[in-house]
Amino acid sequence: MADTFGWRVTFALVSVLTAVLMASMAVSLPRNSHPAKIGFLRQFRLFFDRRIQLGVADVVFGAAASYVFYTYLSPIMRDEIGVPERYISIGLVIYGCACLWSNLYGGKLADKGHGVEPLTHIRPIYCVQAVCLCLLAFASLLAVGATTLLRPYVER
Length: 156
Description:
Helix content is about 75%, strand content about 0%.
């Protein structure tokens, strides 16, 4: 989008979508919670809990890894693999949808108490998924390696 409409339009769209999301959350989230009365400074004691520190670090490093991935994926797809510029956005959208689906699916598994089930019960579908992921990773590495190795011969 930024290549087509400019970064300002993209930024405005993200801002509008964020406002819509916040409004929908305000409408849909339950209002039956009773906030605890605690002082302002006492709330910061929470950050000394090791579990909270690890949870915050997980979110920060996970987001950073995702942004790094998106930052370098477009140039790699364009320059190294040779994907035409018009298809890069489609690839990023597909990747984003896959990430969204996996987060929603993981949340549903956790809600049902099946968060660690794949570690204790190996089902055939998990094996199929693992094989597909390995094949996809191998094919991606092969494509990058082949284009890198063949580039000097093609550019002549």
